[in-house]
Amino acid sequence: MSSVDVRRVSTTNVRPASYIDQQASDTYKRIDLNPMDLLFLNDTCMQRGFLFTKQHEEGTNGECINDKISHLKTSFLGIEKYEDGKMISVYIDCNFEGAEFVHAAADVSVEDILSPTYVPQTIIDRLFLLTGVRNSQGQSHPLLSIQVTELTDGVFIGCSVNCVCDGTSFWQFINSWSQITSSSNYHAYLCPPPVFERWSINKTDCPLRLQLSSVDKLPAKRNPISTNEVPPLDGLVERCFRFTKPNIAALKERASLEIISETKQNMVISSLQAILAFVWTAVIRSRSCLNDNWDKSLELSIKILMNNRTKIPPSPETYFGNSIATGIVTLKEGELVKRPGFGFLASMLNEAVKSNNYEKSRSFTESWIEKHLMSRVPSGSTCMYGNNFGWGRPIAVKTGVNGKSYGITTVNPGPVEGSVDIEIFLPIEVFKAMENDAESMKAFSS
Prior knowledge:
This protein has helices at residues 19-22, 35-38, 62-69, 110-114, 121-124, 167-181, 245-263, 271-288, 333-337, 343-354, 358-371, 428-435, 438-441; strands spanning 6-14, 29-32, 46-53, 76-81, 87-94, 99-106, 144-150, 154-161, 210-211, 236-243, 299-307, 324-332, 396-399, 409-413, 420-427. Strand 7 (144-150) and strand 8 (154-161) form a beta hairpin. The strands form four sheets. A six-stranded mixed sheet has the order 1-6-7-8-3-13, covered by helices on one side. Strands 2, 4, 5 and 9 form a four-stranded antiparallel sheet that branches. The protein is built from 13 helices and 15 strands. The two termini are 22 Å apart. By secondary structure, the protein is α+β, with helices and mostly antiparallel strands. Helix 7 (245-263) packs across helix 10 (343-354). It folds into two domains: 6-214, Chloramphenicol acetyltransferase-like domain (Chloramphenicol Acetyltransferase, 2-Layer Sandwich), CATH 3.30.559; 236-441, Chloramphenicol Acetyltransferase (2-Layer Sandwich). Keywords: Transferase.
């Protein structure tokens, strides 16, 4: 299916329940963004979607979903320019403008999404809003846009959110929303309330002033209709690899034994570290076979995003903002390919995670404040969370095109308890080469 027609049934601007109480007041809460928020200002909005079969949606209609989503709280992004014309500060203006909620329909089946070997990006990307919208455009676009698309035999819920929160916060929101929608008492959901208060190293650095030139473009006005235009993918495709619970346990044990054999050390490897090491070792080995003049000295950099809430400053898990750190593994590709197994890379990922500490996090933050750096989410980044909407487990979790580039890797829970889905964005030639590695393919579930 090369293209898909997504028809809008309705578009609703959903305001928080407290909106009526605040109509008479012109005073809104302002939340100044801190360095971890501003770091992703020039990135595109985060997109995550959930696929359900129709049986999980029996008795649910657009009106009911609208009623559930009306209990969510959202706001818009504000940008303040200073008198010198060169400096700005960015903040959340809690002005009760609300979230964008779109009810749509498409002649697409669940199998159209799941059956292809490669993720059908031309279908998936039409199921999200805010495609191509950068976080700095939060002053002219909603900070949260949700599109619920009725498929021929299922439902897809596509969530697009601004950089005002990270993956951990995003999944807290998803879990809260699912508890609200599945409860008859909207005020009795179990998730603890989010903590919005931002931290700063020095109170004098709040609000942070940025060079206007550090933000590529500031939009003039809000465009209420998202075009869902999909940027070119530059010949890259995405494939999903599924790991069952038994396969994951076997990979973890194998990685540990390989490390003991090589280093005589008993290193505790996590399941995620074992999976990522296995996948990326297979990718690099397959890529090396494609070029007769492959350069063994080529430097390889693998980056992994980590929840930083226990580091700087110590924050509650319900902190709603950005608190992440990047672990980096750097080595020569030849060094990886020549070693048997994948335990070597697993041990390096383990060391990268353990090396993240308070001092390193504080040093990075102070450096950012001094230089006002704007960054992109690194290629090869990963995040793994669990979720349950109360309508049965989603049969798949998918991502939109926003933020995708060569090597980007996304980890999501699989449809069966304990399983894991890994989506990787690479040239199709690399995937074809991986298929020729029979030993590696055994670890993947069909």
